[in-house]
Design a protein that fits this description.
Elements: H1 10-24, H2 37-41, H3 45-59, H4 74-86
Helix pairs in contact: 1-3
Length: about 90
């Protein structure tokens, strides 16, 4: 049985995208839900950890560093945050 991940509200997605773009020093229109942070935007592991820490701070959730492997693009970040908020 699979568990349905709750969808994030558009405002939350916008806030996540703002955080990611700020940390990666990119314009909002440069990042899509499926563009890869490392391969397409030259993000290193330190920046990915910064994203994780910012998401924890802003949304008041606890994210395991193991989730970094899923946070390769915005779609992955949305899923990780939605799951953390549902707990």
């Amino acid at each position: 049985m699979t568990t349905q991940v709750p969808a994030l509200e558009d405002g939350v997605k916008d806030e996540i995208k703002d955080i990611v773009c700020d940390i990666l020093e990119l314009e909002l229109d440069e990042v899509t839900d499926t563009s890869l942070f490392k391969e397409e935007h030259d993000a290193d592991s330190l920046r990915t950890i910064e994203i994780l820490a910012s998401l924890e701070r802003v949304f008041g959730v606890s994210l395991e560093q193991a989730e970094l492997s899923r946070m390769t693009n915005l779609a992955g970040v949305y899923a990780v945050v939605a799951e953390a908020q549902a707990q």
